[in-house]
Amino acid sequence: MFNIILFGPPGSGKGTQSEKLILQYGLKHLSTGDLLRTEIASQTPLGLEAKNFMDKGQLVPDEVVIGMISTALDANSKANGFLFDGFPRTKAQSEALDKLLKLKQTEIGVVLSLQVSEEELVKRLLNRGLTSGRTDDNNEEVIRERIAEYHRKTSAVADHYQTFEKVVAIPGEGSVDEIFESLSAEIDHRMSAHTTFR
Ligand code: B4P
To answer: Among the atoms of ligand 1, which is closest to the Cα of residue 124?
Structure first.
């Protein structure tokens, strides 16, 4: 089993690249943003609670997202590996993920960190807001708050995995295909090392 974290600020292209990567590598895609939006659309109590935070550009409480990921891991016990998109987003979430994977006798293989400038992030998200219907995309103040949350809480996730030398920075500006090629080259390299040492 080979597990990947696709990491980066809001709008860095995690969702866009995940769709291509899961097809290429046969991984199970776990996006906490998508899971939360499904809960909101179904108007579950969890979704209603999460919406309050998401509409303000804030992170949803750790226990909510950790519970969701734990359920999703159990529901996909036969997967070849997981692609985590938008999770973990805090140090507590990374520690919880490490424990959950250890129980399944696996671990994170690589953290691919997309690098995109703040002005490009704002431009992309405002642009998506024109058509996505996402309430967190159509207000620049909320978008800037999401980026500030990333610097306050989420960059610590990279520090956590850097301790284990698992973080690789990937330029996230350019065409979707160019970025996909850079990500794939790194995954191929890491996967072959993973198989060689098994
Ligand atoms: P997410 O759903 O994770 O989404 P995101 O950070 O907004 O975007 P992503 O990086 O996936 O960007 P995308 O590919 O779509 O989070 C939403 C909210 O959910 C969070 O703010 C938080 O409140 C909550 N949440 C989620 N997970 C959580 C967790 N673990 N803990 C707590 N709270 C959590 O790309 C964006 C746009 O850029 C698209 O329009 C795309 O077409 C465009 N784009 C992509 N690549 C491009 C390229 N190369 N060039 C130009 N445009 C590009």
So the answer is: 38
